[in-house]
Amino acid sequence: MALEWYIIRVQVGREDRIRERLVQRVKQAGLEAKIPEVLLPVETVNDIKGGKRRTIKRKLFPGYLMIHMDLDDEVWFLLKETSGFGDFVGAGRKPVPMSEEEIRNILGAMEASKEKPKLSVSFQKGDRVKVKQGHFENFDGVVEEVNPEKGLVKVVVTIFGRATPVELEYWEVEPI
């Protein structure tokens, strides 16, 4: 038996339900040895909403699941008959397993985000923002630089007719 990782397309927004349904069908069919793991790749992210910090899980690849399995006709039929299943990712008619390096990268990213969650900074260079807290409250500006590791945003605001770069926490600004 050769267990390999594959990626399948599923309906976007229903990944959790499809994963649960697939795991349940595997147990009912007694194929746990051929399909030991069905994984929804997620990363842990810190976010601030309404002034409160919260930790959420964000899908790395919306609309996709990873399956560790020994692909044979019985497994193929089980997958195809599961509602919400789309198709395998890869060129051609025969599914292509993922490389070991790809698996290490994805699983490593998931583990790293569990240990140290990333900050969810949704701003990009050139975005127009309004400062909502701090010394420059109610000033409008343009994002010049984003540092997602530290959660900082450098914004250029106009003070007394001069463009002045100001470094702010990402939660101190909001998009216009």
Topology:
Elements: E1 4-10, H1 15-29, E2 37-39, E3 42-49, E4 52-59, E5 64-69, H2 73-80, E6 85-88, H3 100-115, E7 118-119, E8 128-131, E9 140-147, E10 152-159, E11 162-169, E12 173-175
Parallel strand pairs: 3-7
Antiparallel strand pairs: 1-5, 1-6, 2-5, 3-4, 8-9, 8-12, 9-10, 10-11
Provide a short characterization of the protein structure:
With 176 residues, the chain is of the alpha+beta class.
Question: What does this protein structure show overall?
Answer:
- The structure is a single chain.
- The protein is α+β, with helices and mostly antiparallel strands.
- It has 2 domains: 4-119, Alpha-Beta Plaits; 128-175, Roll (SH3 type barrels), CATH 2.30.30.30.
- 22% of the residues lie in helices and 39% in strands.
- The chain has a 5-stranded antiparallel β-sheet, with no helix packed on it. The chain has a 4-stranded antiparallel β-sheet with strand order 2-5-1-6, with helices on one face. Strands 4-3-7 form a 3-stranded mixed β-sheet.
- The longest helix is centred in the middle third of the chain and has 16 residues, at 100-115.
- It is elongated and about 70 Å long.
Q: Within the CATH hierarchy, at the fold level, what is the topology of the largest domain? A: Alpha-Beta Plaits
What value does the average pLDDT take? 87
The spatial strand order of the largest sheet comes to 11-10-9-8-12
Helix-residue proportion:
10-25%
Q: In angstroms, what separates the terminal alpha carbons?
A: 56 Å
Which CATH architecture of the largest domain would you pick?
2-Layer Sandwich
- Under CATH at level 1, the class of the largest domain stands as Alpha Beta
Structural class: alpha+beta
Beta content comes to 35-45%
Q: How many alpha or pi helices?
A: 3
**Overall number of structural domains:** 2
Q: Mind telling me the CATH superfamily name of the largest domain?
A: NusG, N-terminal domain
Rg for CA atoms:
22 Å
Query: What oligomeric state is this?
Result: single chain
Number of strands: 12
Largest sheet: 5 strands, antiparallel
Give me the strand/helix succession: EHEEEEHEHEEEEEE
- Unreliable stretches (pLDDT < 50, length at least 5) are none
Please tell me what the overall shape is. Answer: elongated
